[in-house]
Structures
1.
Amino acid sequence: MKELLTPLRVGLLALSGLASSVWMFGQVKEGIGDDPSGYHVYAVFDDVSGLSEKSRVVIAGITVGQIDTIELLGVQAKVTLLVNVPLKDDARISKRSASLLGEYYLQLNPGVSGTPLKDGEQIKHIDLPPEPGNIMVEMQAIAENVREITDSLKRVVSDDKGEQKLQQILDNVDKTVAGIERVVNGNDKKVDQVVDNVVRISHDVRKFVIAFRQDADKVMKDARTVAEGARVIVEDVRHVVGANEPGGKERGIKHAVENLEGALAKLDDTLESTRSITQKIDKGEGTIGKLINDDKLINSVNELVDETGGFVKQVTRLQTIVGIRSEFYLAQGALKNYVGVKLQPKKDKYYLFEVVDDPRGRTTFVQKVTQTSDSSEDPVIREQQTITEDRFRLSLQFAKRFFFFTGRIGIIEGTGGLGADLHFLDDNLQISSDIFAFDENVNPRIKIWANYTFFNHLYAAAGVDEIWNDELTDFFVGVGLQFNDEDLKAILTTAPSI
Amino acid sequence: MPSPNHAALAWLRDAFEGLGRLTTLFVETLIWAARPPYRIKLLFQAMEFVGVGSLFIVLLTGIFTGAVFSLQGAIAFKMFNAESMVGSTVAISLARELSPVLTGLMVTGRAGSGIATELGTMRVTEQIDALYTMAVNPVQYLIVPRVIAGLIMVPALCALFTLVGMMGSYLVGVHLLGIDEGAFLSKVYWFVDPPDLFSGLIKAAVFGVILTMVGCFKGFYASGGARGVGIATTQSVVVSSVTILIADYFLTAAMF
């Protein structure tokens, strides 16, 4: 038993010694030094007294590094820091006092703009905050000033004369205040009256000024009327007196009165007619009356204008895109051509009409069933004809876009089909797939291709057709051109007229 | 009556002779340590004697050393209103100096003296000579296991000394004197570095070799019966302790 206990005891001791060492090493591991994201930067200070290697480097009170080395650089001190936060080249650093015992640390401002500092680069901006030493100097200066003031005061009051003067000043002030108080207390009623009078007078003056201004305006207006009347009278008199021939004076006056009567009669007529017309208009009679009094018309006009505006908007928004594309099928060695018009009323919606020239032509199946009564033959003969014609195929599709995906449905090359496009790189790259011609072959025709627009209206295409029908699978490459409204306008206006 | 000069020369000659014999014995120990047979059982027995036997006294010393340093440090730091520095000061002192030195001294007092007594008794009772007659090298049989035990066990004891010393310091500082716990621990973690702990363990290993080697040497060359054994024991403790303190100075100078 003793033989077993010895190794056990020794082992336990060795193990506990090892474990305590490991635990302590783990606890006191060098924080920043072991950090793989740590890197070195340096700053040059005029004075690093109080700083030492391993002193803290903090941002907002949080330790982000430590001083690695301090070395002499000419007459300055180069302090190399090991930090684990990104710094910019406008970072600022300052030496701060941790306590009045002379312990210092470095306060870092990581900077907001500029290029990031790399390992071994310099923090160029050094702030010099007030240090306890400087504060002491300032305090000393303030104390000097205070001492000067107290010295002066002391000089003033130090001897008996100074004290007497001060006492005299205080007595005078006291007397003055007492006098003012006495005057105010004795005459407060009179003072109140004076103030009331001043208020009343200023009120009266104000009223008078307003009234005077109104009167003055009236007087000015009257004077202007009088002057006008005088001018007319003078004019008339000049007319009357203007007839120089004998007996002409009476004739001129008579003539003038006649003219005046005639003019008044005409004016009466005119006023009567005007009154009649306005009455009719008010009652809503006649065209103008209806125009003015009936709201129906204006409502109709409004509706019409609205609808016209909407239509015009839609028409102006409608984009027309004309495209032409040729694809070269590698296995067949033949070209397939497309000419199409895309009508796009909205950004996320379009109608596509295409005419396709496919080298495979258009294949139709014709089944002929013949019934016969001849007993030597089969009573029903079925013949199936496959006819392939070189004909254009038509596509008419409706497309709707959702984010980077566009779904298409409609007639694709003469048969029902579906299509999908994925858009990337600002719509320059388009990956498309069509499935159509469900009954032409064993499996539907599936075509997948990619378009890349590399120069304004020009794009390249490459893909594979008939993926599902192995014997027909063919790869193709192609190019295409695409013009929109703006391009067409430019082309049409610059093209020579026929 | 020899002249004083003669006596001084004789002392000097004895001193150099002793150093030479110690060095020779140490080299022999190194050589025999590398040669088979490896006596594992003896090694474990020596480790138990040096390490396990000294554990209690070392732990007791450790916890009170930490506690008393915390108490004294707090009084000093209170003058500057910087009590939070107590933990880090005690921790650095323990890790670098106090743990290896005090562990070395404690083990010297308990195990080094025991080794010297045991070997001295074997020498004066001619058991060591008997080993020669049995073709067993006494250096390999008696000294190698003890020196290796010192080399391994004293660092282990030193680590535990530091740990319990810090516990003592924490108990006194935080729970008795009311120092802020967060400040106390954070300063310990910030100021104490792995090299501090590592240097303490290296020192402890060196002191382990010194104290066992001196104990073995003094016992191995003891002479003069029971009295000679007593003198060897006393001398081993004195020489080991002084050597540990002197070696500590040079190790510190070399490491920091």
2.
Amino acid sequence: MSMPNAPVGGEVAGGLDARTVRHARLLRAPPVIEVHDLEKTFRIPDQRLSSLKERATHPLARRTYRELHALRGISFDVRLGEFFGIVGRNGSGKSTLLKIMASIYRADGGRVRMAGRLAPFIELGVGFNPELTSRENVVMNGVLMGLSRQEARRRLDAVLAFAELEEFTDLKLKNYSSGMMVRLAFAVMVEADADVMLIDEVLAVGDAAFAQKCVDVFRARRDAGRTVVLVTHDMATVQSFCDRAMLIHDGELRYIGDPEEAALRYYRLNFGGEGEDSDGPGAGDVPDVNVRVIDAWLENERGERIENVEQGRPIELQVIVEARHDLVSPVFGFHFLTADGFQVFGFNRTIARAAGETDVVRAGQRVRVAGTIENPLLPGRYYVRAIVSRNRSGGDLALQPLRILEFVVYGTQRGAGTVSVNASVDASVEPEL
Amino acid sequence: MSDGALRLREVRGPSALGGGWRRSLELLYLMASTEFKRTYFGTVLGYVWSLCRPLLLFAVLLAVFTHVVRLGRLVPHYPVLLLLNIVLFGFFQEATATAVGSVVNQEAVVRKTQFPRLVIPLAVVLTSAFNLGLNVLVAFAFILGFGVSPMWTWLLLPVLLAWLLILTTAVAMILSSLYPRFRDVGIIWAVGSTALFYATPVLYPLQRISGTIGRIVALNPLTPVFELARRWIIQPDAPLAASTVDVVVPAAISVAICGLAVWIFTREAPRIAEEL
């Protein structure tokens, strides 16, 4: 785990133990995907000479190409039952990698081996035809995703039930709302039930409720021991779901392993700052961070450390960090997230300084962030993520997300959503006139 | 997951028949039937339209060739011969014209799923073949109606249809795999198929033309299909324009076209998704 300094109590440690057990099991699991030294180059014509006439009139003019190395010698394994994340910036080659694994592109070098039945989800609702009914579309889509026609038909009812569209079976797709369409497409994916699922940015579509449904499905897949490879930009998903994650940059594998660390490096790539080059000797497995979390905890009114917070009681947060480098104008952000990685609320703090004082934290200095936070959270498990950034005004922003602590809110007043708010709303019978 | 499923298999990337025969056949059936439904269930008169087209063309050409060019008088049973020929050539023309852009039209599927490439042109040909089957039945109704009596050689029709089907498939494969890279294939084929219409004995029997043009027409791989159809279906005593050479050479050219089609298609198939 990447939070060696975070305090962990009984409740939370139990969760970590489960994770450790899972990790140990995965280490022994056989590989279901083996990628070895994969190479892919796209040839992009400098000038598009795609007509025969142009080629006929310039028979000797060699077509000049710009070579785009989308993948340069990528190797990795994915084990049976693993939830594997692939992260990287746009154009890093991660989608190309997924498409090669899904047999959509052909690799130029290296090999890919895979076990079991594969269902690629590069996009939701591929091959949906607006002129056909949902019944026909579901069968078509199922077959495209690798099912046989019989299997696809057998799963039809389950798909329509999951999408909550049983009444609209014989309606043509063109008469569906876009929301219904997305639900249908997602249901097909869920019910495809392959051994290995390759998923590309599916979470990018749909509203929050839909995203929540995706998350539920991912968790169910994971718990059922399915292998899932997920390409995503959403680090919250990576951190809360992936067993391992891989960072690709410029077609090269930059990191593979702990998802927290992969997410951290992804943020660093995105925001420049501490670049890759700062990975000096010994940097290896230890994250090269700007601050180290010395301690982070919650406490009650009497100043005693607690892991559980009663519903409605204010949260007393205490965090101590130590700067590893000089930090100019640092900003300390705190995000409260649900166990599924959805952000509930957050706030930022800068260091209180007298006017004219330079806002620099020297290497080795410690900073304490402490205070009381109103607690609108409904019962459940939450965690706190700290994000330290510096040089707010300049482009040289270093982001460093750290999951600093987990806690449980207990209470009896459950409700919809994740927070309760004061609502002075009354219901009464209108007097008859 | 069973132990068998855990055996690692090589992933070789997309190909003409990637995913195996079974899957390819299922996709082929689904695509062709979908296309057929889409074409004929979206319109009020449905299938009648697909029948109207050859019949209308037939009426126009019949008027021209019996009253203007007066070729009809020289050829026995000219009206039904013309109808049968139009049905046969109409299939070739429709299938190949649709095939040109078929892979590009299925872009979403090609770029987002593991899809056997060959299925796309095959589905187009199959959809047109449904039409051909129904149109041939109508043509036979007319043939009987015009007083041609049934004969045993009618049983040989499947041979001709198979020849036509295979040749059409080969041309469809070539066109559909080249179009993503060379978009002018579409324009060339629009002209080319019209030229081919006149270079095939559709409007006239081969014996009516002579000289260089006649020899060129005799080389056309489609020619024997139409010449043999006339002899086997309508006019058993029709003089075959020339010897068996006139069947063997076009047949050889047909085989060559099929070979070319397979070569081009398997060469292009793995990269089609990148060209789109």
3.
Amino acid sequence: MSRSGEVKALGDELRAAVGAFMARASWDAAGREADDARFNELALRVFRYQTVAVPVYGQFVANRGIDPHSVHDWHHIPPVPARAFRRFPLVAGGEGEPVEAVFRTSGTSGGEATRGVHRVLDLSLYRASLLPTATRHLNPQGESLRVLALAPAPRDRPDSSLVHMVGVFHEVWDDGGGGFFADGQWQLRTLELLSALEDAEASGVPVLMAGTAFGYVHLLDLLAQEGRTVCLPPGSRLMETGGFKGRSREVARETLYGDLERRLGIPIRRMVNEYGMTELLSQFWETPLADPPGPDHDDLSRRSLVGPPWIRTRILDPHRLTPVPPGEVGLLQHLDLANLHAVSALLTEDQGVAVTRRRFRVLGRRPGAEPRGCSLSMEELALARSQGAGGVRDGAPVRTGGEAGNA
Amino acid sequence: MPDRFPSWHFPPGAVPTPGYEPLDDLDVAILDPDQVDHLLDILEASAVELRKIPALERARRLGAVGRRLGDRGDPLRREAEERLPHQAGLSPAVARQLLDRMSGQWTPEALERLVHVEFSDPAVLDGFRLRPGAGDRVCAVGDRLALHVGSGNVPGVGVTSVLRSLLVGTPVLLKPGRGDVVLPVLAARALAGAFPEGAGALAVAYWPGRAIPELETRAFERARRVVVYGGMEVVRSIRERLPAHTPLVAYHHRVSAAAVAREILAGEGEAEEVARAAASAVAAYDQQGCVSPHIFWVERGGSVSPEAWARLLARELEALQRTLPARPTAELSARIQTVRGEAEMDRALGADTLVLAPGGTDWTVICESGFAFGGACGGRTARVQAMDRLDALAGSLTPWEGILQSVALECPEPRRTELARSLAQVGVSRITTLEHQPWPAPWWLHDGSGPLRALVGWVSLEMPEPSPPSC
């Protein structure tokens, strides 16, 4: 099934409306509050469109007995769990609709079967959300930069939203000397990387390093092994994302940033963490480059994340999904207008705490935290199956054809 | 939160003054390489004194653990009750029930019976005994030193594991799971008074991940047998690290389930009774145990439909909130919300799925049509799956051989034995009832093997041929 003409026309109309909102939205706190009503009105229109355009979501909402036209506050839009993107066709028009990109999560813990999938109907929305946000948080002066990505080139990993993001940075900001220094399996191309770092050091052009925490650990190992320290030009900055989930080695963030400062010559206050999800087309960023200089930028524990004006976040009591009082820990629930042609309201399993009305911190799992219990988890089952014990579908219940006579 | 708990026990004189560091509600001992070697030396040497005491006498003396932790007035028991809820993420009522039931498996009587069930002639643990029909004499020997690693976090696993080791005369170093630190340390304190030779052959030390590499590396090198409870990845990584000649007894994570036959659903009364037992089995350990049922295959054709039975189960789970309240952690609640949302999405796609749940995440019943197999969500999340014929169950389970552990089979004979035979073919190692499912006997065939027999080596003493008569 694909979208009817009428639904498509509605989608186009809302695409224009979301684009207009993005263009006019205020980034400062006061302006954002002034935009509340406009955000709410647009979120509700987007919600109503999604219940029609994404059939499974429409039915999900109907099964809860909710009439989309009776919802008047975006806080009451029913979210889908982020993991639902792994199993269900959450795209306008459903499974048959042609899409411009299919982004998948890296799926380190459960093999192919547990990878999240986001079918992106309109990549221009991704770019429209990303560029103003990333410019603000990574390149507020709009300088020409040397983009050194510890990531594969987009042609090698077209299914990675992170690679796509870094590809946009390279396309828009690179001075011609940067590039991508990992292969399709995310292995660093060490010789080229060392040589590029040397060139960058000599060029005087400010560098943007972009990569995952795990990639930076490998880079530090490489520099230590080679006994090398570089001093990248003044104005260089570093973007870090991704964390260590499912990897064999974890390093505290303070240690990682400190080591990177010593080895690369980029001060910690110019290192920026990005928090994104394959399922969302907008991202959240730390603000040391966007905010006026201050002592908080050196203290990682005082930093917080902020998204663009077209994404809003609620922090909910995990037990009852009601909002928690300010300052208390809860589950992050986002509403991203850039997810126009999928589902905007997403419930994550990430915990966070609000710092201000717009800013929050994500609380990661403690390193070495063990799962509770000795029952086989859904992820383990998926992993066991991906390693040869039959064909699991995401650790969720899997139906097999063994039950003769079941209608 | 109570004061921080010292998460170790060492034999007297092994590590007189260990350094330690705080970790949440625990103090964690930090040993240097010399201390590690000295500890392992002392443990190895303790085997001599331990084995001087005959096996059945060892069982009786080790039973001090069950006697003390089972006595609600005992200071050790009171400390366990105080600390377990926070440590293991359980409500106080669930922790109390767990202590009552588990301590019953550690009494002198239970341990003595365990030795008898495992070795029909327990003296085989103390010396050579004739092997009928074989013409030789055999004895069962423990190891000089064993390392037990419990990463699974279910309280009680560590104590059961070290008692098994000491019963067969093997000194043991236990690294308990993060949520199972308190009970083994308290058990060691119980032994220190009642059975010094036992306490002298037992060391308990918790450390997170690979935080004390010397201890871990040396223990893996010197242990003559390693027992591990944990996830697939933990088992895999330990298997890779062990020398080829060191036996590994691995209890990897598994899933348990239940099946309810249509004959049981002939009347409301029996259906309710089974639902009550099912709710209790789900609530015990809040589904953290490998014996906890997660999936219920319910047969159609009885006068109570699978959907109606799911509603009975939901009612019983709600009723249990009064006596055995759930206390889901934030992480667990998050996962439950996802699982509920995904079930709703299944329904939206046209599946005949029903989600029964209260306002919070204390329990969840997801009723589905047809067989499906999934891993555990935990936190009292029961999947009820309506099936036309339970006879088809074993065929559907073939791909999951080695993953399914206990199945509670609520079904009258002779059909029950027939179904059990087919489940045995697909790797189910325990077929039980819902009432007994969460509380296996001490002598249960743990993942298909005798719990003590898995920990011994056998030695055969062959007789010299009688000399030919001289002429």
4.
Amino acid sequence: MSAIGCSVSGREFRKVRNKFDPELARKRKPLMITGAEKILADRPQPPASQARFFQAVPSKSGTAVTKEREFTVQTEWMLAIRDRKDKSAFAQLFDFYAPRLKGFVMRGGAGAAEAEEIVQDVMLTIWRKADQFDPERAQVSGWIYQITRNRQIDLARKGARAMPEDLAPDEDHEPDSAQIVALEQEASKLKKAISGLKPDQRSVIEHAYLGELTHQEIHDLTGLPLGTIKSRIRLGLERLRHELKGLREP
Amino acid sequence: MKTINHHIPEALMVAYTAGKLSHVYEVVIAAHISMCDRCRADMSAHEAVAGSVMETTKSEALSQDFKADVLSLLDEPFEAPAPRPARQGIYPGPVIEALKNRDPRWRSVGMGVKQDILSEGQEGSLRLLSIPPGQAVPDHSHTGMELTLVLQGSFLDETGRFGVGDLEIADDDLDHSPVAGDGDTCICLAATGGPLKFNSLVPRLLQPFFRI
């Protein structure tokens, strides 16, 4: 079972990690201005709408200082797990996702004990396959959904689920925090839109993604109330793919 | 890559994302996504939607010690998964997987048409078809949905022209007569919900023999 359809090589991720962790890059090359610092310096200042990305943390002296957090907490946890095998970040991610995952799997008909077995498998897969997480291509929650569904299919039938080829690693691709932020913004709108659905509409979507509807039943629905936001996420991802391909195929 | 005109419709993509398709259909969908950026992005978008649904689902309290149990397993050794098969020639990774890394074993079914049955069972059949340019595939109908993905060349039928990467979806009421286009031999990956049925007498007599 491979966790995601779009994975990138470990080598690329090490490059990404260095860019994303200026602390690490600084330690490595103390006297030079690193690429990471340049990226951070060149990065446009986030607009006021991204105020949620700034988090107040207590300083050692006891007074609160504002530390810039670039991405959502979920993405930050995942990057810390991926890049530094950070167990405290994993514990935080666990606290956030494990009860939600358990609820989601139980909505799909699993008993409490069975649901916890699945949640345990998924959580360990997140830890072990963290190097396949690419925030430019997937939201943490979407990535976890996929791992969960693959695990459920593995348990339900013989033979793994057929998955698309992994995307070819692109050694020259520079990590693009603007793309990650853009994807997160679309995802946050998506989440808001889903929270705002009427109960019966939400129920249809939930049943579909919980795997409770057959293809024919989904087909017979007069259109899922997914709205335009899903299309925007899709277009954003498609644009990224084309940009990457443009870089690869001169 | 040539332009792909026939993509995965929404209902089929939702069913694939949610793991509701049988394996033979999954292989065709996964092969198409391997060839089609647009559908890969669409799949990611569906996963984003599903992830948001998961994230906004009512939480269930975890049993005592559950977290400690999981955290204690983090340092356990584990086996790294085998790398996924890559594309070889005209065959995308999921087809190589279905071929179990062997070359196609073509068997003639008459009129220059050849096939290689990759899997056949209760849940349906998966085959590679090779059709010479200009040759018609015998008129046939099938139980359940038929998915056909063009890997090389092209074919035309009552619903349009299908080139490399295009996915045709035929339901069981469509009696269609695909004809391979000019140029390269048309090679397709086809999945059906059951065995193909031929509508003219001679191929029907041959059907049990050739398992087509």
